[in-house]
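Entry:
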Amino acid sequence: MKTPRRTTFALASVALLPLALAGCTEKSTASTDDITVTASDDTCDVSADSGTTGNNTFQVTNNGSKVTEFYVYAEGDRAMGEVENIGPGLTRQLIVSLPDAGTYQLACKPGMVGNGIRQDFTVTGDSMSASDESGQLAEAADGYRRYIRSQVVALQDTTQQFVDAVKVGNVEQAKALFPASRTYYERIEPEAESFGELDPKLDLREADLEPGQEWTGFHRLEKDLWVTGPQPDTNAIADQLVVDVQYLADQVNAEDYTIDPTKIAGDAQGLLDEISTSKITGEEDIFSHTDLWDFQANVDGSQAAVAALQPIIDERNPELSANITQRFADLDAELAQYRQGDGFVFYDTVNEQQRQELSRKIDALSAEVSQVQGVVAGA
């Protein structure tokens, strides 16, 4: 049972810890057992400060003026679940599996920047996992974990090639390798976000820098290649990128690295949210305009996450499964129009009307994929 105690946390009064990223929209239907979260630009009002082991459902409403996010963190800032890109006036649902008793943290992140407004969330009860008599949930988790690990292997290889080109001053080769190496990261970005400060080290945009924050990762090198030219610390930034990618590899290859099936569904949605938030506007790869490579990678990753869950969706909601398949096909066909050689046209050549059509296709797919988490959780 949830404790019916309401706690409001103001931004100025919270000890701030590390962070994560951004996402999509739509309204959800709440049940009486759901925990409500009401976010504003400087508060995070939660209807309960405790829950029980197993699935916990949060209904997150944004009453502020900024787009916000909501996260559930385990010890070490391991993201157990997140819902992103909650626009003003919108409500999003998050179903998160918390299999073990202990103290977790809830975090609202107004403006999708900074460390968030946090509070402790106490979970009691016996350790438990979802009922899985058919083995489908375990098979989904194993399959998706293999996918994550395979993408990280490719990320390590292509990132090293990219860094080598940067360090020898081969700017044109580095530019060609930039979107190719990022592809493998963009397919699995929600998992990278699970590991505390890792995602901003790898993928922080200049526009999201906070005062005094060190800027590292892909986008710092993007600016060096397309705008400023190599800087005195460019090679050091490149070396750090390799180190940070290796850290990601260490995390996903650890023996205790597990993925809950409801988190897989959340990843599928989160990857589409990534497009809706920063990529559709051209903000993500603002210097190189290679956003369409990222579009395709996010779609690929979302499709892989759904594929891992496909037997479960087919069994529990075959109509939804068919709708998702069709929406993926529609979006893939739309993106195919912009292919050029082994890649895509630059995004600054895509006009506003074309961007709106891409956005409509993404929203149509997102509306279907947003239902998967509830199906997997048995809601």
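The radius of gyration is 20 Å.
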